[in-house]
Hints:
Elements: H1 6-9, H2 17-26, E1 42-53, E2 56-64, E3 74-80, E4 86-93, E5 104-111, E6 116-125, E7 131-140, E8 146-148, E9 160-172, E10 177-186, E11 191-198, E12 206-210, E13 222-231, E14 234-242, E15 257-264, E16 269-272, E17 277-278, E18 286-290, E19 300-306, E20 320-321, E21 323-324, E22 328-333, E23 336-341, E24 363-369, E25 375-380, E26 387-393, E27 398-405, E28 417-421, E29 427-433, E30 436-441, E31 446-451, E32 460-463, E33 467-473
Amino acid sequence: xxxxxxxxxxxxxxxxxxxxxxxxxxxxxxxxxxxxxxxxxxxxxxxxxxxxxxxxxxxxxxxxxxxxxxxxxxxxxxxxxxxxxxxxxxxxxxxxxxxxxxxxxxxxxxxxxxxxxxxxxxxxxxxxxxxxxxxxxxxxxxxxxxxxxxxxxxxxxxxxxxxxxxxxxxxxxxxxxxxxxxxxxxxxxxxxxxxxxxxxxxxxxxxxxxxxxxxxxxxxxxxxxxxxxxxxxxxxxxxxxxxxxxxxxxxxxxxxxxxxxxxxxxxxxxxxxxxxxxxxxxxxxxxxxxxxxxxxxxxxxxxxxxxxxxxxxxxxxxxxxxxxxxxxxxxxxxxxxxxxxxxxxxxxxxxxxxxxxxxxxxxxxxxxxxxxxxxxxxxxxxxxxxxxxxxxxxxxxxxxxxxxxxxxxxxxxxxxxxxxxxxxxxxxxxxxxxxxxxxxxxxxxxxxxxxxxxxxxxxxxxxxxxxxxxxxxxxxxxxxxxxx
Length: 484
């Protein structure tokens, strides 16, 4: 694996010509995705600025153009009319000011109906590499390019650590105020969210206080990507706690969880109805973000990064890495989020194939389970051996996912076996792309996302008895063209 110097990782991109050959090389990869947003070169990580505005869905992702490495971050811009067919729109944010000289880090978007505004973390570093995170804003111009404010909205607080980032902006009509949630870490190295408020979108921002979440004062070492949405009369707070191990998550120290409860903007208190719940039980799901400007009060729209910080993946030698999940529609049911792929994905289906054990490289697999037992193997060899197994354990009341049977193994020290708590397996909907699988169990009551890198002899599946399976090959929905 290549050892990157700081100079290589933080090199400034001056011209598209500098990465044209790299793009030409990686588009021939066997693992380029068919219906998932992915980087044109290099590394993609957190989704950012996800918003509906003037008939288009706008999505940005953190992007390091040079290779599969975290370095100088840009925002790359993609657009869609249906949350499925995504088109590359070019670099959306350049790190080109003193306050973001070492990267445009994660943030959110806000549409006022006429204009689209972007809020992000400017990652500034001095000559001695001391970090100063600024909260910054930009307005999307008529040419689709953002125009940054000349100064940050505000800087960091010195009574917290340097980890203060990922602004999520919301407007609270009954307060006639805007609020920004900031992921943070206190000086005791505990995860927190900070709150800022203003009556004006682009000025007058003041520190309001620390978000209080009773019962979660010692939960995690940093809260990345806090995001909040109000659906079906409840508030849902999602965030990514770092630097901590959680039960059932093997050796991973990066997670994505949610709380259902009530947000009080007077006291800056989020009161949970119960404990935390995992947004996704898979190996590779992180930094989820709700879309802004969704009109349905009973539905949220969400996307996440298929990947985890500090992990390594099998396309790194090809100088690219990362994908976004498919966009998901979320609803509340009995105090839990129920997730489904965006409805438009059914339009990608081609004629169903015979269920003869062969697994297309890009497909949707629908399974109905009519018995009490359940066992599914994806990416098995022709004789049924190996593969990625999902077996229901009635004693544990859990589905056990095990990817140790794949030819290409990765992140072994983090864990290759995970459990998904459930009473039974009624049905499964699996979305399979060239280097990822997303499974929706029991009509979306639980989900499981993972990178996977099958080789030529790993394109079969096996199923337990008393199951019915339908397989649809899926047409592409992303355009893998070179737009900078």
